[in-house]
Specification:
- This protein is of the alpha+beta class and about 250 residues long.
- The strands form five sheets. A five-stranded antiparallel β-sheet has the order 1-15-3-11-12, with no helix packed on it.
- A hairpin with a 4-residue loop joins strand 5 and strand 6.
- The longest helix is centred in the C-terminal third of the chain and has 25 residues.
- The two termini are about 30 Å apart.
């Protein structure tokens, strides 16, 4: 098992057994942001709207449409955009800005620069869309060159280091990740093996021993099976002696 330690309280990290021992230092130069636009027009809950097909243009230039022909109020517009099965990558909410006065807010369903979008086809009464939050990738700088930048659509980076993932939350410099053996977990696992084997060996012994005080013997007293079981279990635990390197040894019990 491997463990990873971060020098920053705002960078959380985890490691798997595939992680390589070593240190890695980087600067967090940006965090991921979700693209959001707010339309400028305020309408009442009952105001009749004439919407065409809503065209959503994504950051890569591709487009998708949502049929809003039957959406005549702002709540119906919101429901149509958020309907199950709609896969254009945006969600809508009607923001109340006054007494029976609402503005339409649209947000990307995911963060990152590729999730940015623009819209067209809504009733002019809803107004034009202003960008409240620009979709952006999280970025880390791993070296001095301008090209030494790694990007992630979310604040979690995977694959930068084998077997290690880490999550950033704010820009900062000089973050260090140190990967090493998780000796605590290894010790716990080895102890668990030892405890389990000792419990089973104790059970075998109790079932094959003679109690002089009660003058009774265990159900396996005199049988060859207990000795065979104990010998096989000991051999399996030691694995030919290799586990002795981790502190597992057999005594006469």
């Amino acid at each position: 098992n491997q463990t990873v330690t971060s020098s920053s309280t705002t960078v959380a990290s985890t490691a798997t057994s595939a992680a390589s021992t070593g240190d890695f230092t980087f600067d967090v130069t940006g965090v991921a942001a979700t693209h959001r636009v707010l339309l400028g027009g305020a309408v009442s809950s009952t105001q009749s709207l004439a919407n065409g097909p809503l065209t959503v243009t994504k950051a890569d230039g591709s487009t998708a449409t949502i049929d809003l022909s039957s959406a005549t109020t702002i709540s119906e517009v919101v429901s149509a955009i958020n309907a199950p099965g709609t896969i254009v990558g945006i969600r809508a909410v009607a923001v109340q800005v006054g007494t029976d006065s609402y503005r339409l807010s649209l947000s990307a369903t995911g963060s990152g620069a590729d999730a940015a979008f623009s819209v067209a086809g809504l009733d002019p009464a809803l107004g034009s869309a202003a960008v409240v939050s620009q979709g952006a990738d999280a970025t880390i700088k791993i070296g001095p060159a301008d090209t030494d930048v790694v990007r992630s659509a979310s604040n979690t980076f995977t694959g930068v280091l084998p077997g290690v993932s880490f999550t950033v939350s704010k820009p900062e410099t000089g973050v260090s990740l140190s990967v090493g053996r998780n000796s605590g977990a290894m010790t716990s696992q080895v102890k668990s093996i030892v405890d389990s084997v000792n419990t089973l060996l104790g059970t075998i012994a109790s079932k094959s021993s003679y109690d002089a005080a009660t003058k009774t013997g265990g159900p396996l007293l005199g049988e060859l099976l207990p000795t065979q079981l104990a010998s096989s279990l000991s051999t399996a635990t030691l694995g030919g002696g290799s586990l002795a390197d981790y502190g597992i040894q057999l005594d006469r019990y």
